[in-house]
Known about the structure:
It is a single chain. With 492 residues, the chain is an alpha/beta fold. The chain has 19 helices and 14 strands. It folds into 3 domains: 4-198, Lambda Exonuclease, Chain A, CATH 3.90.320; 237-276, no CATH class; 281-492, 2-Layer Sandwich (Nucleotidyltransferase, domain 5). Helix content is 44%, strand content 17%. α12 packs antiparallel against α16, α14 (374-387) packs antiparallel against α15 (392-401) and α18 packs antiparallel against α19 (463-491). It is globular.
Amino acid sequence: MRQLSKSKIIAFRQCPKRLWLELHKPELRDDSGSEIVFAIGNQVGDVARQIYDTAGDGKLIDINEIGWDAAYSETSTWLADTQAPLFEAALRIEGALALADVMLPEASDTGLRWHMLEVKSSTGVKDYHREDLAVQTYIATQAGIDLASASLAHVDNSFVYQGDGDYRGLLKAVDLSEDSRAMTDEVATWIAEAQEVAALTSEPEIETGPQCSSPFDCPFRHHCDRHMPSSDFPLSSFHRLGAKKRDELEALGYHDIREIPNEMLSAVNQRIKKQSVAGEAWFDAEGAAADLAPHTGTAYFLDFETIAFGVPIWKGTRPYEQLPFQFSLHIVPEAGAMEHREFLDLSGEDPGEAFAKALIEHCGTSGPVFVYNASFEKGVMRGLAKRFPLLGPDLQSIIDRVVDLLPIARNRYYHPDQHGSWSIKAVLPAVCPDLTYCSLDGVQDGQAAQLAFLEAIAPEAAPERKAEIKQQLLAYCELDTLAMVRLWEFFV
């Protein structure tokens, strides 16, 4: 019998095939896009230890340093007679194991009792969290631990950091003891069924379906799709086609967008189908020009790069607030040569006020400010105005001048190579094939920009690496606004 970790049991709950693949074919995992999630989770876990170890007498069980056997031994000894917090407690029973994020002691007439907390970087309790904690509660109680309570501690996004290193209030604990205990029989069944799947000698035959994206995007989806009929225009080429609708269409035997009757499609997806069948672009040049005609004068093209910390590090900021650290601005006067302005702060200090002042200085006082997806840039500027009220009126004047190129692109242009996406990275190669993000070194998308920023502001970052990251970030953001200039020139 295998010792299945809690994460493996939760993988089984999502899909038995996922569990089997996790155990027998882990090399097939696709973990792209998970780096930021892991980084935030580690930050929140580190701060949880600071919050709950108020006396400084707690202990962290480091599995990577001491190994599992020593971790079980140290956990058992600590929980038996030590009245101090324990972090990453190693718990096991026959067939299952778990690491408890936080164990807080409580002395009682019958001996030590423990409050168990599972720490999550989300901003609320989700349904799958309840199953997660139920599994952990089951393992703990079956291991003989006297639990006073089982709670989930999640990030409270109303918390405002005061810049003093005090994160009390960042986490909000929700007692789920009754829910967890009520699921005892279910958890026992899950573990038994998961063991049966783990023991299979071949991959379970399970069709793709809603479970592939709920509650998580399965890292093995590409593997399970390998036998699907291939097509140059798969269902993923539709715009905003949710997993449920995709699964419904596949169940009806549709795997190519060109096969699906128009009555089953939205107007946007009918256009995608039509142009895919024709194999050519559609462009309403007259409509695009009319959309842009009212916006005259010197044209500004603006793009931001932001970071959202699960654990805020700058005074006056909240968890997951979109905080800008970089902008690129191309300026196209009615007469004269195009200019470029930029801002980037990799000092690790709060760049907010300097960012806002530079933005106000370079955006002038009149002329359209073109962006791609206005809700984002507007939201970031409103956040700056709230943080720095004296700059609020000037920031609002920029917000009032913002013109969004995204709806113009979506309503006036489509090329089959976009495959249902109107992101600037999808539209640009179709309109301007001479510009490409693929030629950029290191940073080629927004998530890579965030990871690069985090690496650059880390205290241990070497000056040479920091300089390299700076050039990569500047090149990436500049291409974003140059791309907007080229799209604008195409549309007008």
